[in-house]
Fold this protein.
Amino acid sequence: MLTVIVPAYNESHVIGRLLSRLVVGDGHQDLEIIVVANGCTDDTAAVAAAYGHPVRVLEIPLPSKRGALKAGDQAAKGFPRVYLDADVELDAASLWSLARVLDAPGVLAAGPERDLDLARSVWPVRWYYEIWQQLPAVRHGLFGRGTVAVSETGHQRIAALPPLLADDLAASLTFGPAERRIVPAARVLVHAPRSLGDLIRRRARVVTGVKQIEQSAEAPDSSERTSIRDLLSILTSNPVLAPKIAVFFAITIVARRQGNAAVRKKDYTTWLRDESSRQ
């Protein structure tokens, strides 16, 4: 049984584009998709329930991604298990490609290749992500894909993690390079922020999450940070990217200031969500 868990908070505008790709065709007897509507004030639950089998909808009263993941795990029947953000798009073929990779000895976690939808993003956002996608940690880590697939052993690892804002980064760091795979046959479409303000809010949340991981004794020992060396390496290999690297650097500085302000307040619960890509 392949189990998909989708935590969803007020995602009625976008969850249909994900579910419609997951349930296309036949052969769902070994698939269950659990959508956990958490604290929703819209009709997310009704939209998801309309898809019928293999979609199952749970509702919990509080808006909490961690609470939604826990409720989904308690209701789940089998492994492997795939955790999906409601605002990404992944098809059924990619889903099963991830599951097959977890059959390989020693592979505990897997993620798909990332396709970024930047068609409606303003130019600073497009420039930022052109550089971001070239960073080594971004290319090889499981984070930033809205998708993490784990075996039963891999699930035991992530279930032991403390509550963390950057849960996908923490999950990625939990597995060594030999224990995780990025699967070329699986592709996920990630919708980028359309506005600069939404990008900065999203990146500020990442900064806060990274700091929380670094300060937590129960979290993985290391975190992923962009270094000047990474940017210099990109610049050396392609000097024409200098203006885009400058934009990337400026946005990173602004986001770090905002994220550090949240850290000083010990605010690790405010979820700075990008709303522009959900419109």
User: Anything to note?
Assistant: The mean pLDDT is 91.
